[in-house]
Specification:
The C terminus is likely disordered. The chain is globular, with a radius of gyration of 23 Å. 55% of the residues are buried. The protein starts with a helix and ends in a 30-residue tail after the last helix. It has 19 helices and 2 strands. The protein is mostly helical.
């Protein structure tokens, strides 16, 4: 029978996929761009504020969730989401109404841009509070050995549902005229807010009591080596059960056991360094992504002269591409290894973006869109692999904190959106794309540091420990890919 928290997570992620995909990409970026009198930089500033809010709240809240209760923290995030929904809905409604009545010279009154910026800060706070603990509770509710499979299911559900949003917006745009106006964008935004309200309800349904016990961890409950020690002076050699919370650092990784064979290392990087290297790589890649991802819809609008519905059709196809490439990625990883697969796939995706930026004026619109879709699929299809490596490499009691650290990457993503907006205003989108290729390429190469210490999937299948084994050295789970389309991340790179 499926775990209660797993069911709630899958339902909520499906609803969030539909809700977020309606308004968080093309529509909000275009709304801010038009409201700010066609300034890419303002789009970047608001995105940076959203990311900063996530960063400031995520880690302390993740620590609280690890130490006390995760379900309560997720519920608080749901309350703030409802406040953000109300403020965003009222702001976009009155901004469009005011613009329709008073915009005679083609310029837009900017007072509402500040209120809209405040609402995006609230969305950032909600995300920082709920996403880390929710993902950690999801991981705690899945038996060890199955997390790669269930993370793949999770992101497959998200990607399939994320096609609902663009499809809905295409219908709305077609009904109201298919033009880049605040009035038409507002209608789509309000539809998104309605779905966000429904998607926030499951935040109140999580329950810590359904999380599996510490015995579900691969080391039989010992989060890190040394958490339990044997007092030889005790009669019968009983274990002195020292609470791991007394010895465990703020952020801990799973340490190898004494019996684990030594693996070749790169620059002294060992198994316990895996989560730190993953975080560093993710942060650099996110910084590169932020310079361009928020501006792809504006690139399609301004450089390719595409209509709103045409742009949304691209975003219907993109999740399908991610799902298809995820299926290939998880299959290849079983043969080549997870890190090897990530390096190859990301490198190919960066090549597509480089070709797209350098040959923009030599290619027709359909060729550019094809490159974008392939690039998006490849750059995002490795998320289940990265997530499974991380969850294998950190102890159960610090998973919410490590998940909350993703907010730092999100702030890097949003902070670089500010830089990307300024560059796009002063140069052009193609120039910014090339900067992204360089930054993301460097971030991907960082993973070479852990290439020798992350075992291949074929080896994991043979070395998977028994329930009673205390071998943390075999903590990685075998990656099991379902036969259906699988997918990946909540934040598209």
């Amino acid at each position: 029978m499926m775990n209660h928290n797993v069911k709630v997570s899958l339902v909520q992620i499906a609803l969030l996929g539909a809700a977020d995909s309606i308004w968080t990409g093309t529509v909000i970026a275009a709304f801010i761009y038009i409201l700010s009198n066609n300034k890419n930089s303002v789009v970047g500033y608001i995105e940076a504020g959203n990311g900063l809010a996530t960063l400031l709240f995520a880690f302390p809240v993740g620590y609280f969730a690890d130490k006390y209760t995760r379900s309560l923290v997720i519920s608080i995030g749901g309350v703030i989401a409802f406040v953000a929904i109300g403020l965003t809905s009222s702001t976009v409604y009155f901004a469009a109404e005011y613009d329709e009545k008073h915009n005679e010279d083609g310029t837009h009154d900017g007072w509402t841009i500040y209120v809209l910026g405040l609402s995006m800060v609230l969305w950032g706070i909600s995300s920082g509070i709920s996403s880390g603990p929710a993902q950690a509770l999801y991981a705690d509710s899945i038996p060890h050995g199955d997390r790669s499979k269930w993370y793949t299911y999770l992101y497959a559900v998200y990607l399939i549902s994320s096609a609902v949003g663009p499809t809905t917006s295409v219908v709305i745009f077609k009904i109201y005229g298919d033009h880049w106006t605040l009035h038409e964008l507002r209608n789509v935004m309000l539809a998104g807010m309605g779905l966000e309200a429904i998607a926030s309800i499951p935040s109140f349904l999580y329950d810590d009591k359904y999380a599996l016990g510490k015995e579900n961890d691969v080391d039989g409950g010992n989060d890190i080596e040394g958490a339990d020690t044997v007092d030889k002076n005790t009669t019968g050699g009983e274990k002195d059960q020292t609470k791991s919370s007394e010895k465990q650092p703020l952020l801990a990784s799973v340490a190898p056991t004494r019996d684990e064979p030594k693996l070749a290392t790169c620059l002294g990087v060992r198994k316990e360094h895996i989560p730190y290297v993953l975080f560093a790589s993710d942060l650099v890649v996110a910084i590169g992504s932020g310079m361009t991802v928020k501006f792809f819809p504006l690139f399609f609008k301004n450089s390719l002269d595409m209509t709103p519905s045409a742009v949304q059709i691209v975003y219907i196809i993109a999740p399908v591409a991610i799902a298809m490439t995820s299926s290939v990625g998880t299959t290849v990883a079983r043969r080549l290894g997870r890190i090897e697969t990530i390096l190859i796939v990301r490198g190919t995706g960066l090549g597509c973006l480089l070709a797209m930026s350098m040959a923009l004026h030599q290619l027709d619109m359909y060729s550019v869109i094809a490159l974008y879709i392939v690039r998006t699929g490849l750059m995002n299809c490795t998320y289940p692999l990265e997530e499974s490596i991380l969850m294998d490499s950190v102890p159960r009691s610090t998973r919410a904190r490590w998940k909350s650290l993703e907010s730092v990457s999100r702030f890097g993503w949003c902070g670089s959106a500010m830089v990307g907006g300024i560059l796009s205003d002063h140069f052009d989108y193609s120039f910014t794309f090339m900067i992204t290729v360089a930054v993301q390429g460097f971030g991907t190469l960082i993973l070479l540091l852990i290439l020798p210490v992350v075992p291949q999937e074929s080896k994991l299948a043979h070395d998977k420990p028994d329930k009673d084994t205390d071998s943390v050295g075999h903590a990685s789970e075998s990656l099991q890919a379902p036969s259906s389309s699988e997918a990946d991340p909540l934040l598209i790179n």
